[in-house]
Amino acid sequence: xxxxxxxxxxxxxxxxxxxxxxxxxxxxxxxxxxxxxxxxxxxxxxxxxxxxxxxxxxxxxxxxxxxxxxxxxxxxxxxxxxxxxxxxxxxxxxxxxxxxxxxxxxxxxxxxxxxxxxxxxxxxxxxxxxxxxxxxxxxxxxxxxxxxxxxxxxxxxxxxxxxxxxxxxxxxxxxxxxxxxxxxxxxxxxxxxxxxxxxxxxxxxxxxxxxxxxxxxxxxxxxxxxxxxxxxxxxxxxxxx
Length: 241
Prior knowledge:
Elements lengths: L1 H15 L2 H22 L7 H24 L4 H6 L2 H7 L3 H22 L2 H4 L9 H28 L3 H16 L1 H6 L5 H8 L7 H4 L5 H24 L4
Helix pairs in contact: 1-6, 2-3, 3-6, 3-8, 6-8, 6-13, 8-9, 8-13
């Protein structure tokens, strides 16, 4: 599959450069600092599963930030370097390029989550951690960043500048995160629509508690497919520019 060729190319580029490593190292440092001061230092009155849920609260946010920082360069950087047309015409079409770039970023984000495992494992010092809780929580995080990464690729396809792509993606994600606030001051049926679109409160909280939500998985995968499809359409439209 030609998308795998693009994914391997971009994934190798991420790991051979320094920007992805700096992003992961910086975010993991901040995440560890915040989790230690707020999660692990709460004292024995906080139960182990509550500490793990707190970890996923923070890891969710940092993983979403990482997805924006990594995805905003995917297509905008190709345009800057003048390789976007060559790439799209040599590997099998726009859909393969979009899918390959999404897979590459998801690979780096999987590494980011893997490198963070030591943080919830620190709960073992004074308590116990359920492996199933960790698996479900990380699964929810990866489901979320699959959608935000697809959104970032769309922003990178729309904007020819990386910073502009990151800004428009960030605005979109924040809008979805705070949608639950708008739902509280809006009348039905719009309140129900806004509440359902909330990226965190409506969908991720079950995962942070160790519970699988099939409805949330459908929501995240639907967003992923939608944004990847829109990215493909944007690239296809540029053929006529």
